Amino acid sequence: MKKMAGGPASLNIKITLIVIAISIAVGTLYYTQALVQKLQEKERQIAQLYAKGIEYIANTSETDVDITFLFDNIIKPINFPMIQTDADDSISINSESDIKNIKNINYDTTLSAADLKMFLQETVKQMDESHLPIIVTYQDSIVLQKIHYGDSDLIRQLKYYPYVQISIAALFIIIGYVGFSSIKRNEQSNIWVGMAKETAHQFGTPISSLMGWLELLKIQYRDPDKVLDVAEEIGSDVEKLNKITYRFSKIGAKPELKNCKVYDEIKSVIDYFQRRLPQTGKSVQLTLEGDELACAELNLELFEWVIENLIKNSLDAIDHREGKIKILVKDYRTKVEIEVSDNGKGVDIKRRKDIFRPGYSTKRRGWGLGLSLSKRIVEEYHRGKIFVKASAPGEGTTFKIILQKC
Question: Any idea which fold 255-404 has?
Answer without folding.
Answer: Heat Shock Protein 90 (3.30.565)
